[in-house]
């Protein structure tokens, strides 16, 4: 009986050791946190397109990539607090360098977080902006009220009423990518979109100084569904402070309202 107990105990100990090895527990190198990480602060499009594609694509990136579900229905302020809790939970301040990719309302949220908490270890911010998609909240509030109430709630009004708070810090490498095509919502409400004023494609309208900026041949939905089209540009900017020469060749198109495949 004693021999059987000793045999079972030995098997348990061996299994425990094996489990520790395959999971990196007890491996000194595995305890070393990578020096940098990327935080992707999504926006309204996450409610429609989800975050699954982004998470799957960036799973094997050259650095840890965090894609939080943080956006609330109430306000940018409450979204900022949820984002803060996520950053605390995942100990993002422990990285030597934190890089940020923020989509439209994500930029409003991230900037307010920085204003409240300071830049901390943030070394890079890449803003995704769109002169087309940034008119979508007005369309939702005026022509798609039921859908807005179902999907987004009061935060749409809050976004519309909140001026963009720019970040001015020379120690942060700031870049911007500007989408040149319209989503289906904007395309189907082309007249209302254009009634808000002429489309501008210059940098000045975004009220944000940057080191470098480029146009993206995508619409806002595709930022969620086709990350392979721009992901390398993110890491190129993180490494060099500039986007690629290839991306610098992209220009606004004559007709941004043509229909594109989402996936």
Keywords:
single chain; 263 residues; alpha/beta; Rossmann fold; 6-stranded parallel sheet; 6 strands; 41% helix; globular
Topology:
Blueprint: H1 2-22, E1 36-41, H2 45-49, H3 52-57, E2 65-66, H4 76-89, E3 97-102, H5 104-117, E4 122-129, H6 136-143, H7 145-151, H8 155-161, E5 173-179, H9 184-188, H10 190-195, E6 212-216, H11 220-225, H12 231-240
Parallel strand pairs: 1-2, 1-3, 3-4, 4-5, 5-6
Helix pairs in contact: 4-5, 6-8
Describe, in short, the structure shown.
It contains twelve helices and six strands. By secondary structure, it is an alpha/beta fold.
Describe this structure in words.
This protein is α/β, with parallel strands linked by helices. The chain has a single domain, classed as Alpha/Beta hydrolase fold, catalytic domain (Rossmann fold, 3-Layer(aba) Sandwich), CATH 3.40.50. The protein is built from twelve helices and six strands. A six-stranded parallel sheet has the order 2-1-3-4-5-6. α4 (76-89) packs across α5 (104-117) and α6 (136-143) packs across α8. The protein is globular and about 55 Å long.
């Amino acid at each position: 009986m004693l021999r059987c107990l000793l045999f079972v105990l030995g098997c348990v100990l061996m299994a425990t050791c094996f489990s520790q090895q395959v999971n990196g527990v007890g491996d000194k190198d595995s305890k070393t946190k990578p020096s940098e990480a990327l935080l992707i602060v999504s926006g309204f499009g996450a409610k429609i397109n989800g975050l699954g594609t982004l998470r799957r694509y960036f799973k094997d990136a050259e650095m840890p990539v965090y894609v939080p579900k943080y956006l609330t229905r109430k306000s940018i302020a409450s979204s900022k607090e949820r984002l803060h809790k996520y950053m605390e939970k995942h100990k993002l301040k422990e990285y030597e360098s934190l890089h940020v990719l923020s989509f439209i309302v994500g930029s409003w949220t991230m900037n307010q977080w920085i204003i409240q908490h300071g830049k901390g270890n943030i070394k890079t911010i890449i803003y995704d902006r769109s002169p087309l998609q940034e008119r979508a909240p007005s369309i939702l509030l005026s022509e798609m009220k039921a859908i807005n109430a179902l999907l987004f709630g009061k935060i749409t009004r809050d976004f519309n009423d909140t001026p963009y708070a720019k970040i001015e810090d020379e120690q942060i490498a700031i870049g911007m990518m500007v989408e040149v095509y319209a989503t289906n919502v904007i395309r189907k409400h082309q007249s209302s979109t254009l009634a808000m004023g002429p489309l501008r494609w210059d940098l000045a309208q975004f009220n944000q100084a940057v080191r470098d900026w480029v146009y993206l041949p995508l619409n806002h939905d595709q930022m969620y569904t086709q990350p392979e089209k721009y992901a390398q540009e993110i890491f190129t900017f993180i490494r060099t402070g500039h986007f690629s020469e290839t991306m610098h060749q992209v220009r606004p198109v004559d007709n941004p309202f043509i229909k594109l495949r989402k996936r």
